[in-house]
TrEMBL record:
Major localization class: cytoplasm
PTM-bearing positions, type N6-(pyridoxal phosphate)lysine: 234
PANTHER family: SERINE HYDROXYMETHYLTRANSFERASE
Name by which UniProt lists this protein: Serine hydroxymethyltransferase
Pathway(s) annotated for this protein in UniProt: Amino-acid biosynthesis; glycine biosynthesis; glycine from L-serine: step 1/1; One-carbon metabolism; tetrahydrofolate interconversion
Source species: Streptomyces formicae
Keywords in alphabetical order: Amino-acid biosynthesis, Cytoplasm, One-carbon metabolism, Pyridoxal phosphate, Transferase
Amino acid sequence: MTLPTPSSHPALTAADPELAALVGAEERLQADTLRLIPSENYVSQAVLEASGTVLQNKYSEGYPGRRYYEGQQNIDQVELLAIARAKALFGVEHANVQPYSGSPANLAVYLAFAEPGDTVMGMALPMGGHLTHGWGVSATGKWFRGVQYGVRKDTGLIDFDEVRELALKERPKVIFCGGTALPRTIDFAAFGEIAREAGAVLVADVAHIAGLIAGGAHPSPVPHADVISTTTHKTLRGPRGAMLMSREEHAKAIDKAVFPGLQGGPHNQTTAAIAVALHEAAQPSFRDYAHAVVANAKALAEELLARGFDLVSGGTDNHLILMDLTPKDVPGKIAAKALDRAGIVVNYNTVPYDPRKPFDPSGIRIGTPSLTSRGLGVQDMAAVADWIERGVTAARSGDEDALAVIRSEVAALMSGFPAPGLPA
């Protein structure tokens, strides 16, 4: 096949030109498209550099000061730095920065607080929850007895009277709050009260909103949750990794569950990149960024509503918008693939009470973290909404020429907003 010209990675190009060319192609794709997937972002050059250091060469099973390998003098300091920054940024008593990703982090929570067959509780996947919150196809739903809550059909909002009734009836060992398609503010205080009444450990999964919490654009779960689970990418703009944070009383159980319970040696290069991202998130400019993400999402939601789109819960409080395309007479999957051809990257997504199958759902999910990282503001959201409207219309009619026009317009705008971490 014909490969594009590789990017400026001389050692990689010399060693493996085929792979280098694919990296270069991805760099250009990320540069000239409008990335609206709410779980994606651009990391800084500093985070990229930390991810590619010689820390890759080290094995470090255990924890700082308690390793099973010698030669950890520098690695211990890297991990301690990441831990200290996490504790300071989020105001927590304990932090574990070793989980490889969000799902393993959540698995560690179950290992720490539940036994196989115990009842656990979380938001149902079709309602906006995550697979690892006890959904049936996940190990968490196969190894534990998962019970799920949802949202009201008329409002798209969580009914806490129903959540409390379910929790008191089922008495779960663990309750998860948070999810992957929740456009509204999570009421951690209400969940905390219910968990205490039910005698459950409350886990706030803030993977999507960790950056908003760090930047003061979303309330913190720290006063209410026993454990906080988060990825370090998404709105936090770090590497693909995860953290578990908790009250000190749970520190030993959490650490033991991560290692040796689930994992071997941590990925030290990722730990370093997490430390960099946490340092960046502690700067005043990051607070501006977090609030801009929300402002952009709200502005985009208003523009979409004005164009007749059906938004789950009627809008957004955070970085994420979930759209039901049923009134537009086009399935979510067809719309998402057409928008991709138009240079607008989204994901098709189930909406609450969706009559369609998960792999061919009614909705699409979009978000503003990436475009905000590039410097787009509320003044640009009308153009974004216009492209989405035109793209969905073209998807319905099969108008590929219209999609091509949109792609050229998107590329032209994005050329004026260089992306962090990408070659100039």
